[in-house]
Structures are given as structure tokens and as C-alpha cells.
Amino acid sequence: MAASGRARADGRRTIFITGGASGIGLATAKRFSREGWFVGFADIDAKGLMAALEAIGAANGSTHRLDVRHRSAWRAELAAFAKLTDGRLDVLLNNAGLARGGYLEAQSAEEVDLQIDVNLKGVLNGCQAAFDLLCATPGAMVVNVASVAGVVAPPRMAVYAATKFAVRGLSEALEAEYARVGVGVRCILPWFIDTPLLDKARFSGNEDLRVSLRHQKVPVYPVEEVAEAIWRSVHGKGLHHLVGGQARRIGFLNRLAPALVRNRLRRQVEEM
Ligand code: NAI
């Protein structure tokens, strides 16, 4: 499907955001748009896409119906975006993702496949499809949204954590690979963030993740904190960026005493 809306980037810097219709993607779009960037919103949520573009003003971006699992759709939508930006893609934000909790044996084959296909293969598809555009844009960058679950893996989120570990590993490998073509790589590792994702995921069958976290008094950080971290990562240095005080504490402790961190997480999730 071709890009809707007629706005053109007209020399502005550009960012293409998957999962742009909600949560972290939308907050990041607003952050970059405030600084004068042109935003390509990509998502499967058609209504959400229209609302997202409206939120930053139709002159400041374009919408793209894109399921990140489909390689041909990636090619078509990036080509449509490039027409609006004269071939410029400064940042590809691979952000679309979802979480399904529960013990592995209790997850359906569809839930397992969906998490792997969107959270991991979607990122691989994006990096492959965008490669030529990124190479053609001086100073371009790929930003992959993983999770602190890509650093320490909580029980009852095994598949989700596996995909996020994989995205962290992929980011490390790509940072080295892309150095030869001058494309940067950033990997964002947020703690729990206040987005609709928390209402769709659950550790157990009884309550959604947001309620479980509240019962356990687990901190949840505002979405703007991730948007700010992404903005800073693009304008700063370093591959991995932990977001939220708790993520930074766990990341630090995990380097010193990984078994302690694992046991603590295990106890915490078991009480949920
Ligand atoms: P969200 O549920 O608010 O937004 C996710 C967006 O991705 C939605 O607009 C959805 O329609 C879109 N999406 C889902 N499947 C798609 C597909 N196949 N193709 C294209 N778009 C698709 O969730 P949130 O929290 O903003 O999540 C964004 C990223 O941040 C995800 O990768 C998630 O794993 C990660 N993350 C979220 C955390 C949180 O606590 N909310 C913590 C750490 C990482």
C-alpha cells in the first residue's frame, strides 16, 4: 500500500518508526517531530496510524500500513517513504513488538511464533530492507528497541526474553558489520514502561501485567523517558542504552552478581 498523505520531507531529517501508532513508537515520533524531523509511521493499526499523524500534524510525516513480518511490504513502504524524502532515511527505529507471558508449555504455537516473527524477524526484515537507504544517507542509524528482558530473562516470559536477547545480539553484530558502510547502531533496553503493552501481556492467567506490577510495587516508567533516551542515543555514543533507574541498577548488579539477580527476579515473578 502506498504512503498516504502528501507531505514531503523537503530536506528535513527523517525517521521511520515501526509500531509508531502507540506507546514508545508514538512518543518517539512526537519527540523527533518537535525537533523538526519528518516521521514515517509504520504499523498494522490503521486507525492508530491516522491518529498518530494527526498528533504531530499532517505536514510532518506519512503513514504506512506495514506488518513487519512481511518482507515485500517492507520493500514497498520504504520505497514509498523514500519518494517523500528524496531517498533519505536518517534513522530506522525497529520498535514494533509484543509480549505474551506465561509458562512456555502453556503458550500456544501461535503465541510463540507471533513473538518471534514480530520481535525478532521483524527487526531482521527491517534491517535488510532499509540497508540501501541507510547507506545512501550520511550519518544514518538503526535503533533497535529490545528490553531489559534482553539482559536478564524473567521466568514466564521465556519467548519474549529470547527474542529480546536475540535483538541485543543482532545489534552487537550489526554495529560491527555496519561500521564498514558508516551506519550506526543503537540498542534500547527499557525497564517496564507505561504503554498499552502492559494491558495485553500477562505473567499468569489471572491478571494483566500492569495489575501484577502494581501488586508487586514494581516501578513503571513514563513513555517519554524512552523517547528521550532514543533521542539522546541517536545524538550520542554507545550501543546499549538501559532506560529507567531500575534497568540501570539491574544492569549494574547483573555484571557483578548475575545469579543473585536471576534468583531475585525468579522470586518476584513467582509471587505474581
Ligand atoms: P504498544 O503495544 O503500545 O505498541 C506496539 C505497537 O506495535 C502497536 O501500535 C502495534 O499495533 C504495533 N505492532 C504490533 N505488531 C506489529 C506488526 N506485526 N507490524 C507492525 N506493527 C506492529 O507497546 P510498546 O510498549 O510501545 O512497545 C514497543 C516496543 O518496546 C516493543 O518492542 C516492546 O517489546 C518494547 N518494550 C516495551 C516495554 C514496556 O514495558 N512497555 C519494556 C521494554 C521494551
From TrEMBL:
Keywords: Oxidoreductase. One of its GO terms (molecular function) is oxidoreductase activity. The keyword Oxidoreductase applies. The keyword Zinc does not apply. It holds the Pfam family adh_short. PANTHER family: OXIDOREDUCTASE SADH-RELATED, RETINOL DEHYDROGENASE-RELATED. Belongs to the short-chain dehydrogenases/reductases (SDR) family. NCBIfam families: PRK08267.1. This is Short-chain dehydrogenase.
